[in-house]
Design goal:
two-stranded antiparallel ribbon; 6 helices; about 45% helix; elongated
């Protein structure tokens, strides 16, 4: 009989062993600054950013935001500009998270643009690997880490 805990995810790829915590195989610490940002913080950050963009959309163009597309466009723009420039959105900043490359450098605008586009498609962020990196992060070799 096969134990479910011994079956790896298809996202892990061949030859990867079990790790004790997310980010271990990437050389990240288990806790504190530099460790992988966990799902709870990510959700809170995304909700904060979404409501900020929704409020801006309702203030700037309420007549065009009936289906939330202006909110989505503002979320895309917010992520590209702020993740590209500083590595974090207001939601990331408030929850102590930052988007970095795998070697700890800032993501930059090109990675932020692709990552943001995939984030707005919704599916990539909810499918993640053992390091808790969504497909949008894997596609551009970034990771969302704790800053405090």
């Amino acid at each position: 009989m096969i134990d479910r805990r011994d079956v790896g995810s298809w996202l892990e790829g061949p030859g990867t062993g079990r790790q004790q915590y997310p980010g271990e195989r990437l050389g990240r610490p288990a806790e504190g600054p530099g460790s992988v940002g966990r799902v709870g913080r990510r959700i809170v950050a995304l909700v904060l950013d979404w409501y900020l963009c929704w409020a801006l959309a309702e203030w700037l163009a309420p007549q065009w935001n009936e289906h939330g597309l202006v909110t989505l466009a503002l979320l895309f723009l917010l992520n590209v500009l702020l993740v590209g420039a500083t590595g974090h959105t207001p939601g990331h900043w408030l929850t102590g998270l930052q988007v970095q490359t795998l070697d700890g450098r800032p993501a930059g605008f090109a990675r932020a643009a692709v990552r943001s586009l995939l984030l707005c498609l919704l599916i990539p962020p909810v499918v993640f690997d053992p390091d808790q990196r969504g497909l949008h992060d894997r596609a551009v070799d970034t990771i969302l880490v704790r800053t405090r």
